[in-house]
Batch of 2 targets.
Target 1
Amino acid sequence: MAPRLAPYNPIAGSGHVSKCQRRWSRESITWLAISLIVIAGTVRVLDFVGHEPILALANNFDMVRIQSCHDFWPADEQIPPGARSHTAPLHDYRYDPAISLDKCIGSTELIFTQPIEWLAASADWTTFSIRWIGAAKGIALILLATTLCALISRHSKISGIVAALSFTFVIADPVNLLYLNGFYTEFSALFSLAGCIGFGYLAVARPRGFTTLAFAGFVFALGLTKVQHAPLPALFAAWFVWAAWRRPGLSFPHVLAPIAAAVLVGAIQVVHYQTDRYNGIRTANTTNLYLGAVLGSSPAPSETAQLLGLPPSCAAAAGQTWYSPGVQAGEVCPEIRRLSRMQLAKLVIEQPSVIVAMARGALERTRPWTPGYVGQVGGEHFGDASDHAFTLEDFVVSLPASVFAFLILAPIACTIGLIGRNLVGSGPAGSGSDVFVLAALVTPAIIAIAVLGDGYAGLGKHAHLSFTTLGITWLIACTVLLRGAGRRTVARSGPTPHA
């Protein structure tokens, strides 16, 4: 009787693993890696929201502009409504429509805070924890990150890994998460920026009506977060036009949506900024720009003051700000209040050294992004959140000024090279390189807009989005360098012999 033969197993019966099986294995491992990275970011966000003691930026008055839209006031009645409580963040607030300060300024931030007002009104809350707002923002951020990572990974697994790493290590850094448990508009700016970059990639990589409209929607939302960010949508729209020019798949209707969003939100903010509600803000911003940044950076303040049509007394006050003694009362250089941003053109033409000095001063003052003049830990006097949670900011702040300047300027040089190569038709056309160009250009633009908006006053906080764009820029750069090194290694080793 002949022996029974075991059934043939194509895997165990030969030393060969099919190409399909190898691909399935690689894709499964990649999806698993992306999922684990996103889960780690999710845990990081939720842990930060629920951390005890509470971690957040204390109120340096700016929060009042959103609180006034909902009549949310400190539960501690020893803190008057509208007053700042800058030494430590507060845990509890009260909903009291009977108190109205008429200081509300519209913002995309209201999308995240308005549901809490509806809940407070329907449930008759007398007090509520700020963690309700932190949880709403945190969940929204997690859902956006998960959606973008999934969509981007379907197009490119490498890009999906970069997106997941950007969420977990950059977006979910305390530099950004400190805005969850609070009423600052910086969170909606971060949320909108992430949507712009993520859906911008998708709109370029896979032109669809949904991705293009989503990109345009986030561009509009970014410009609406606060007046300072109104110029950013124009930069995103210009980048999209450049990307569309390189790709026949992006038709005119696709390009029109983000352009229309940028023009519309820009017009809204220009009109908004001219209203009486912004009178005090405009005066403070102009003073901080010209007195603090322009004259304060000028090698020859007297000559700069004369060029701007200011009296010698203003040159003597160079470096002072709106918060310096006598400035708000009009005792120090009141003439500076009549200047406009257009007069900076004189400096560009006749005193470019002032602009260079301002740029150098901006790089010196951008770090740290988290302001040290407000507390960050509940129950502690000017407590530091970095004592409770790991942040990349500590590493970046420790870098020498020359290295930090390199981190910002080197990607710009690479971007100029990429654009130049694309103009002659020899540059890479990948969506990853497009996003690198975008992030590399947006980083210095954010810092420049912050300086032009309010001088050096609170520059790190005003330019906090640059932390995120800088991190994404270098994640992409490192990925490209590692892939290039891996390909060179494979090329030198030659083809793998088969058994």
Target 2
Amino acid sequence: MAQLDREMDEILDEADESMEEFYRDYPEMRPSKAELQAEALRDRADEIEQMELVKELEQMRRERISELRKIIPLIRSKAF
């Protein structure tokens, strides 16, 4: 996982460098501060949604584990 994170960081760094080179050549294409702020807010909203999804999935997982633990005694009694 750490290697994947490093590789992703390298890819993102290369993309940032490419964009900076592009903006040097075409400064009029650089996003405004308002556009950058809007993008940051969208990114934050995505993070919040992802955290909520993970929380919901974790709750579903715990409920399923609880259900399965309840049937273990029944399975064991039928197996022997």
